[in-house]
Amino acid sequence: MTITDQSLDEAQAKKHALNCHRMKPALFSVLCEIKEKTGLSIRSSQEEEPVDPQLMRLDNMLLAEGVAGPEKGGGSAAAAAAAAASGGGVSPDNSIEHSDYRSKLAQIRHIYHSELEKYEQACNEFTTHVMNLLREQSRTRPVAPKEMERMVSIIHRKFSAIQMQLKQSTCEAVMILRSRFLDARRKRRNFSKQATEVLNEYFYSHLSNPYPSEEAKEELAKKCGITVSQVSNWFGNKRIRYKKNIGKFQEEANIYAVKTAVSVAQGGHSRTSSPTPPSSAGSYGDNLGGGQIYSPREMRANGGWQEAVTPSSVTSPTEGPGSVHSDTSN
DNA sequence: GTGGATGATTGAAA
DNA sequence: TTTCAATCATCCAC
């Protein structure tokens, strides 16, 4: 069946005839009465609903993340918290990652607000449209104001369900971004060549007691542009790996021994010196004094440094350059 | 893609 | 708390 101009004209004519019918007012009032009675039952079942706790959670999270609500100077509480959580780590590209995080968050924020605006606009347009329709219909059938209100609230509910989905996906996006950002911060970065050199110089010049004091660690950290705990980690790793595979490190030890010896001979101070000399017999440059090439026999056979008070007197018949243990880590 | 190197983390021991 | 030892996760040269 097709709608033609003629059929539309006919329908309009019939509508007009009905509106002008002498029985129309009476019929209309009867319909109003019935409507009022049924409307009551509908209204009673459409009591005001409490605020959805899930929606509240989403709203709170979006606010906390800085997506909803006023912009906090280009940053978010989460970003600030994440930056604080880095524990003062002196990752040189931390700030880059941080600004990257903020720009991504700003993107999410922008998308969220533009979508939200679009939904609100669409909701208003649709509500106006429905209201106009109902007003139009009210000329031919009874449409109580309450019914109009109910229709508006239905529309709003539908749109807020859509908004909730938007909020949900925005929250997901923020969570993904956050986890990526945190992962990125945890990414391992090799220390700079210069930093490794400084640490190695200290390590090999204090081979009989490679345990830098707190002050020495701070000094090394400052020189290398890393944190004290990174220095501790480095020395921890170095000690254990050196001990496990002395042979492998001998060449490196010799290189640093020569380096240090040369700088000593030149009377220079290029070597990373400890601000506080080591407490044990292994004093500053202890094994390198006369440009002597390092001998790995300074370590105890048991692999411990703690007891190696007089390195040169301690020899190991079992451990030495030839004794190779592999780092089981790999 | 692979394997070694290396920084970080974790749990136990001192 | 610090260190050791094992392990994880990532980087990087090949």
Automatic annotation (TrEMBL):
Stretch list, region Disordered: 267-330
PBC domain ranges (all copies): 1-183
Domain Homeobox intervals: 182-245
PROSITE patterns, A to Z: HOMEOBOX_1, HOMEOBOX_2, PBC
Major subcellular site: nucleus
Keyword Transcription tagged: yes
GO cellular component: nucleus
Portion annotated as DNA-binding: 184-246
Pfam families named among the record's database cross-references: Homeobox_KN, PBC
Signal peptide annotation: none
Subcellular location as annotated: Nucleus
Protein keywords: DNA-binding, Homeobox, Nucleus, Transcription, Transcription regulation
Listed Polar residues bias regions: 309-318
Entry superkingdom: Eukaryota
GO molecular function list: DNA binding; DNA-binding transcription factor activity, RNA polymerase II-specific
DNA-binding found in the keyword field: yes
Family: Belongs to the TALE/PBX homeobox family.
Protein name, UniProt field: Uncharacterized protein
Organism annotation: Neotoma lepida (Desert woodrat)
Lineage summary: Eukaryota, Metazoa, Chordata, Craniata, Vertebrata
